[in-house]
Amino acid sequence: MRKDRLYIVFTLLFLCGTALTSYSQRTNYVKALGRAQKKQILIRWAVNQPRAWKLSNQHGFEVVRYTVIRDSVILSKPERKYIGIIKPAEQSQWIVPANSNEYAAIIAQALYGESFEVSSTDKESILSSINKAQELEQRFALSLYAADQNFAMAQLAGWGLTDTDVKENEKYLYRIKSKVPAGQLAIDSAAVFIGLKDYKPLPEPTEVAAQFSDKTAVISWDYNSLKDYYNAYYIERSSDGKNFYRITERPIMQMSESDAAKPTGRIHYVDALGMNDVTYYYRVRGVTSFSELGPPSAKVSGVGQKILEYVPHIVKAAVNEAGEMELSWSFERAGNGLIRGFTLSLSQTEAGPYIPVVQNIPATQRTIRYTKLFPTNYFTITADAVNGASRTSMSVLVQPVDSIPPQAPQGVKAIIDSLGVATISWTPNTEKDIYGYKIFRTYVKDAEPTPLTDTVYTGTTFTDSVSMRITNRKVYYIVTALDQRYNQSAFTAPVAAIKPDIVPPTSPLFTKCELTGNEVLLRWSDSHDDDIASHTIYRKAQEEKDWKRIKQFGPHTTGEYKDSDVTGGIVYTYTLVAGDSSGLESKPSTPVSIKVIRRPGDLTVNAFDVYIDRQNRYIELFWRDTQDNVEEYQLYKAEKGSPATLWRVLKREEKRTVDEKLTVNTEYSYGIRVVTRKGEVSKIKWLEVKY
What we know:
With 691 residues, the protein is mainly β. Helix content is 10%, strand content 42%. The chain has 7 helices and 43 strands. Helix 1 crosses helix 4, helix 2 crosses helix 5 and helix 4 packs antiparallel against helix 5. The longest helix is centred in the first third of the chain and has 24 residues. The N terminus is likely disordered. InterPro entries: FN3_dom, FN3_sf, Ig-like_fold.
C-alpha cells in the first residue's frame, strides 16, 4: 500500500475521528443500527472501546437472525437463521480498494498497517506506552469514521451486512455478538428489530440558511433533528438555481458531540465566493451510515456584498436631568461619502431584536437625543452604506434612574389540595419594567412572613407544599412585585388557604358505665379538637352484629346520657364516636359493656298487636319477645264489663293465634303474660279491641 498517501489522509482526517466519541464510553458493548430499503435490509455495527474493537476484529462477530413476526402475527417460536461469523477481509483483499478509495485505505491501515505516527525514541519509556495506547485509539476512531462514510467498506471490514433474503410480510430480530471469549473481555451484544415495512424515504435537511458578506457565504442547517438519519452532509452550490455541484470532496460532519448537544444543534460552513454582486444558490443533502444520499433541501440564495470599510463606534450614552438620552458616536469622515446616513436602533435586551427608532440621520451628524426610553435600553448606531453591506456599532446599555416601585399584585388566590400542594396565583402586573415576584408564607396571619423563593419568580402561578399533619387549618400567602431595578412593591394582604381536613378528630373517652335502676348511665370526656361537630353514641346488644346509633349530640355535650331502652338479662356494649365539620369521624372509643339485671317486669313480651278482619269475621293476635327461657304464653280474654278469664295457653314456639268467636259491635280485652321454665310469671300486657 502507499503509506505516504495514507499518512496524509490520516493527518487530514484525524480530527474527524473525534466525531465518534460517543463510542468511547467505558462499558464494552456492541452498538448496532438498521436501515430498511425497498427489497433489502442493511445492518451496521461497531464496538465502543478500542480494545474491544481490536479483539473483535480478531475473533469476528456472530450474526443470527430471528423471524419474529409473519403476517402481523407474533410467532410462538421465532425462526432462527444463522448468518455466520463475520470478520474483516484478508489484507490482500484491501489492496485494490485501498488504492482507489481513501476510506478503504484508512480502514486497511487501521487493521493491518504497521504503525501510526508515534514520536518516541525510547520504546521502553512511559511515553512509548502512552503512544501505543494512543495508536490503538486512533486506529479505532478513524476506522469507524471511514466505515460511517462508506458502507461497502464497512461490510468489507466485517462491521455490516446486506440481507436480501427478506420478505414484505415478515419482521426480524438481528442479534450481533462479539466472539471475543468472555474470560478475555466481556462485551455486551446488540440487536436490531426491523422489517421491510419499516422503510421510510429519507427526509430533507431542514432550517437551511445562508448569510452572505464580502465574497463569503455561511451556510448552516439543523443537525439535531436529523442525527438519527444522517451522519454527514454534502453542500451543493449553483449559480443559476438549476445546476448544482458539490463544493467539498468529502461530506461535512459534526466535529464535536458537545456542539451537537447545544440547543441550536446547527452545523455551519463558510464558503468562499468567486465574486460579489452575483446570486448564488445553495442546498444540503444528508448521507447515512449506509452511504445513502438523501434528497436535497430547499434552496437558499443570496448575494455577496462588499462590506463598508468604516464602522461607527458609540463613545457616550447618558441620560440627562430632563430624562433624555444623549448619544454620540465616532465615524471616519472619509466614510461620509460612502453612506446615506445613520440609523439609531433600540432593543430592551442585549440579544435583540433591534428596532430602528431614528432613521435618515445625516452622514455628517455625530450626536442625537432620544426621549422614549424603557427601564432598560440597548442602542446601536448603523452606518447605512450606499453600496454593499452596512456596518453597525456594538450595543450600549442605557438605563434611566428609576426609584418608583411597582404596584402590589392584584387578585391573589391560594388553594390547597388533599395532597398538601398549595397553588398561589395572581394577576400579572401591567408595568412595562416589571421583572418578577416574590412569594411569602406564614402560618399565623400577623406573623413575620417567610420568603419561599431565593430568586425573583417570573411566573404568576406558584406551587408550595404544606404539611397536612400540622393542626393549623389555615396557611397565609403574601406576594410582592419587583421591577427591573429591583424596586419592590408593598406586600399584598395575607390570603388564607384552607387545608382540606384529612386528619380525623381524636376519640372521646368513656369515664363511667353503670346501672341506675332500670337505666344504663354513661359518662364520658368529649373530643377537644377545634372543628368537632358531633358526638354519637352507638349500642350493640349481646350477640347482635351491627351497631345501632341511639343518640347524637352536638360539638359540646354534658358528658352524660341515660339509656332507658334496655331489657333485663341482656349485655349491652356502648361506644362513642366524634365527628368534625369535614365529615371525618374519630376512631370509636374503647367500648364499655354492662349486663342489665332481669326484673319480674322485664319478662313481658316486647310487642303485642292485633289484626281485625271484619269481612271474614276474625281477630288475629301476634306478639314477639326477646326472652330466652319462655315455657309458655298465657292469653286472657274478656268482653267489656266482664271479668277476664284464661282463654288459651300456647307453647313458646307459637307467636300468634286467631279468635273467631266474636260478636259484632263488642269491645274485647286481650291479655298475655310469659311463664318461664323456672315458673316465673310476668305481668299481663293488655290490648283493647273494638269489633
